[in-house]
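Appendix B. Chain record.
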Amino acid sequence: MNAHTPSPSRGKPVDLDAANETTKAAHQTTLLSPRFYTTDFDELDKMDVSSVREEWDVLISSMRSDPNKGHFKRTEEWDDITLDDVPVELRTELVDFLVSSLTAEFSGCVLYKEMKRRGTNKDIKELFTYMSRDEARHAGFINDALKDFNIGVNLGFLTKAKKYTYFKPKFIFYATYLSEKIGYARYIAIFRHFEKHPEKRFHPIFKWFEKWCNDEFSHGEAFSLLMRSNPKLLAGHNKLWIKFFLCAVYATMFVRDHARPEFHKAAGLDIEEYDMRVFEITNECTKQCFPLTMDLEHPAFLPTLRRMNQLAVSIDDLTQKGGILNKIKKMGLQAVVAANFVRLYSIPAKTNELPEFSKMVPAW
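Structure tokens predicted for this chain:
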């Protein structure tokens, strides 16, 4: 078996009819849905963190102490809630948000657990032991919230049924680092908003986001150290890949969020303002290890994202209508999406001089 081949129990044909609708939604693989990943575990196992040992040991010690051990438990702050309590126009988008978040968290759990299981490198195994532990808690906590609505996701089924995408380790680093840091930015921006506007908080899970997102932050710190321990990952032609992942992650978030207008309306959040705030926080976070950041103030940045979102809406409409003619039209629009992504990518990035030390504090 190749190092990057999923375990035999995964990716096999399964009986989707046996799954509930929420599990089916989590199982779907689309351009915008969270994916499950696999990688070259032998190459990953060869990582040497000796050049960042001092910072590494401090981070691992903190993760070993498990500061959020007791956080993912319901307290008296958890309000009783059923779907009947949620306005009809908001229900679908709330469930979609929870399922998408669960799938992203569980994706990390599966990947990190596999890294731990396959490796022999003590440093790598210990790191991913703690990270898979954290992500399992996150996914389980969200799933419990879904079970309140009697629509929990069958996570065992998902592990076997979900398609796995192969990425080289360096691409795993870029993508997962960004996922963890933008996850932190999203959670903290939502938490801070509801701190100011508690009357807008339409589900109790948002009360847990502050400490929760610190797990995401520390996971990003670990990937930062992994990349800084191998400087060539942050130099030369790899800068082009870093910019590609920045563009892809930012564009995906922008389009995905605009697909949930009722969710953001209920929260009292302007989608563009919220997304730009998340991008700002993420940009600041990534200065710890990325040699470049996106120019959020460039006159073409926001208009290009808006255009990509408009195209995504049109493509979704054509998909719903079906038919050969609409399929041809959809292919044309997808080509326009690609052209707009190239436009986004062509926006000059801002250069960033890496600090002497990687460590950052979640101060937002």
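Further analysis of this model is presented in Appendix C.
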